[in-house]
Amino acid sequence: MKKFLIAIIVFNISFINLYAKGIALSTQSDTNTYSWIKGRQIISFNLSPGYAGLFPPMVNTIFDNYETFTGLANINLGEIDKYLTALDAKGSFWYVPTISYTLLLHPRIGVEIGFGVQSMTFQLSIPRDKVGDIVPIGTGGLPGGIKDNIDTLVGSDTYLKTSLYYFPATIGLKFYGGKKKQVVNTFRFGVEVLMYDIETQNGVSGLHTKRHTVDTTMYLSYELGWTIELFPDKEWPVKPYIDISLFEIGYYVRSGIPGLYADIREGIGFFGSGLIDINTIIPSWDSFPTWANYVSAIRFAIFPRIGFSLRF
């Protein structure tokens, strides 16, 4: 990590020293025609959906193609396969592109504030006509004669639905390096409001549950990226840029992962009641080693920003 940080610092200092003078803000004027703020304001739109665009498609791909994956890897799932066969899984998402405002205090230094909205929904369901394939028979389960008629005894489909809404708000400092101020280093403090609902319906027991939770997380991060001016020779009042970030790395000083994990585990327990003993499959968070708290608090993303900016 130390070598990594030194490499980033040397990379930026080398550019700044090589082109210390830099170039003037292209829409800035030294005359009295424009105010001091002219050319120093930037509105940015990040079109990347972030985690919302990653996890739901991943869930869909895994459950739709798990037989192909296990076959190629020559993995025998054994008893677990019958549960996966009976289980339907679906993930979906929507998001509002993150919008940020930057005020350039200097041609190479700016203050940024931003906000956005992301939503993810996951649903696991077992149709009532498939319950007979997974309900245990005999001791602790159902008498053998009932198995063939189990779908007539089950009141409804069994499902677990989790809806997560994520509202990030950030403030940060941006440092521009390079000949044309294209290398962007952003040091950011973020506050995220996480709202989620976990709802279950157990067709065997008839139990219906719903939990609503609001949590707040806070993190510090560093982002490295580029901004490319599309028409550098044009003196327009509003100038467009393309923004691309290579990575973002940070740490949650207050993480919401343990609480979310515990609530989802509880929901899965209600979901599987009478069908499977979830406690033997999914361990509690407290059973993990201490370092799991630190690892889960790491924030890391590849290409977290793909979008455009307008400077005016």
Tags for this entry?
single chain, 312 residues, alpha+beta, eight-stranded antiparallel beta barrel, 6 helices, 9 strands, 22% helix, 42% strand, elongated
Oligomer: single chain
Strand content: 35-45%
Task: Give the CA-based shape.
Answer: elongated
Q: Strand arrangement, largest sheet? A: 1-2-3-4-5-6-7-9
**Mean pLDDT level:** 82
H and E order: HEHHEEHEEEEHHEE
How many angstroms does the end-to-end distance come to? 38 Å
User: Tally of extended strands?
Assistant: 9
Please work out how many helical segments DSSP would assign: 6
Weakly predicted, low-confidence segments: 8-32, 138-143
> How large is the radius of gyration?
26 Å
* SS class: alpha+beta
The main sheet comes to: 8 strands, antiparallel, barrel
Question: What is the share of helical residues?
Answer: 10-25%
In a few lines, what is going on in this structure?
This protein is α+β, with helices and mostly antiparallel strands and 312 residues long.
Structure overview:
It is a single chain. By secondary structure, this protein is α+β, with helices and mostly antiparallel strands. The protein has 6 helices and 9 strands; from the N terminus they run H-E-H-H-E-E-H-E-E-E-E-H-H-E-E. The protein has helices at residues 2-18, 55-72, 80-86, 150-153, 257-272, 291-296, and strands at 41-46, 88-106, 109-126, 158-177, 183-201, 208-229, 239-254, 298-302, 306-311. Strands 1-2-3-4-5-6-7-9 form an 8-stranded antiparallel barrel, surrounded by 4 helices. The chain is elongated.
